[in-house]
Design a protein that fits this description.
alpha/beta, Quinone Oxidoreductase, Chain A, domain 1, Rossmann fold, seven-stranded mixed β-sheet, six-stranded parallel β-sheet, 15 strands, 28% strand
Length: 316
């Protein structure tokens, strides 16, 4: 019988993440059994694993091959190369994935590239959609060197927007210009943001003073999409300036809720297609075997690298 392993939380282990034997999944009729080839780490699931109980299985994203297609005939066929999204437990050799959360991969897209898409790519794609048509709109992306930020800069540029990228340090300017930023803000204070304002859309992932600056820099009808608090979880902003701007909106974004509107498969297929056409390039800073999960997770939380980390999964 085929064996299965997965990343699980062990609070006593160094790094708190280990690879452990688990049972093979038993797919529902609407689920495919996928043999996983690559996974990608995201801060949300990684941060949660530090505090989770022993035995919890983290992991939102996976790329691999369909071992057994869904019994109800939905989704990709057996042997198909796929990328998928799960609410947890994706970091394993074999997983059961609902067909609505799986997208087929073009031959030109590698498993490593695909593994970057289900959280970072979908978040950027759906956050940018909150302002509608972006052609010739001014769009600000904070945290532009992160996984979501990198995709957001590229996708906004593809949509015809004038892209302003916010970075923490001056040495990061060139890297965001290379992926499509027209202008770059260094730091997150109000004066720096205002110098390039007003913005029709802000994709904001820092919180704190960055969120305050963003809300004070919106154009009429502007939208600020708040999707993270990597800098601070509280913010003080000028309420009068915000509401007198006129029809400005603050949108709270959680990817899991967005997927109730459109299934992951649809967005993943669009993103994978853009990679295949050479119009979107995932930034992978770290590639390693999944046996290094604890070390790479620690590096991610310490912000030791920009972009994404991809781990290659060993299968029996």
């Amino acid at each position: 019988m085929t064996t299965n392993q997965a990343v699980v939380v062990d609070q006593k282990a160094p790094g708190k993440l280990i690879i452990h034997d688990i049972a093979m999944p038993q797919p529902l009729p609407s689920e495919a059994l996928v043999r996983v080839s690559a996974i990608s780490l995201n801060r949300g699931e990684t941060r949660r694993s530090i505090q989770a109980e022993d035995g919890w299985r983290p992991g939102w994203v996976l790329a691999g091959v369909v071992e057994q297609a869904a019994a109800d005939g939905s989704g990709p066929h057996t042997g198909g190369r796929v990328v998928g999204f799960l609410p947890d437990g994706a970091w394993a050799q074999y997983v059961a994935v609902p067909s609505h959360a799986l997208a087929s991969l073009p031959d030109a897209v590698t498993f490593a590239q695909a593994a970057t898409l289900p959280v970072a790519g979908l978040t950027a794609l759906y956050a940018l959609a909150k302002r509608g048509q972006l052609l010739r709109r001014r769009v600000l992306i904070t945290g532009a060197t992160g996984g979501v930020g990198d995709f957001a800069v590229q996708l906004a540029r593809l949509a015809g927007a004038h892209v302003v990228a916010s970075v923490r340090r001056a040495d990061q300017v060139i890297e965001v210009q290379q992926v499509g930023a027209d202008e770059v803000v260094i730091g997150d204070d109000i004066a720096a943001f205002s110098a390039h304002a007003p913005y029709d859309l802000v994709v904001e992932s820092l919180g704190g003073t960055a969120l305050a600056a963003a809300l004070g820099s919106l154009a009429k009808d502007g939208v600020c999409v708040s999707l993270g608090i990597s800098a601070a979880d509280e913010s003080n902003f000028d309420v009068r300036k915000f509401f007198t701007t006129g029809r400005a909106t603050l949108y709270g974004f959680i990817l899991f809720d967005e997927l109730h509107t459109e299934p992951a498969a649809a967005g993943l297929a669009r993103l994978a297609g853009l990679i295949a056409m050479g119009k979107l390039t995932p930034r992978i800073s770290v590639e390693a075997p999944w046996t290094q999960i604890a070390d790479v997770a620690s590096q991610l939380l310490d912000r030791s690298f920009p972009g994404k980390a991809v781990l290659h999964v060993g299968n029996h």
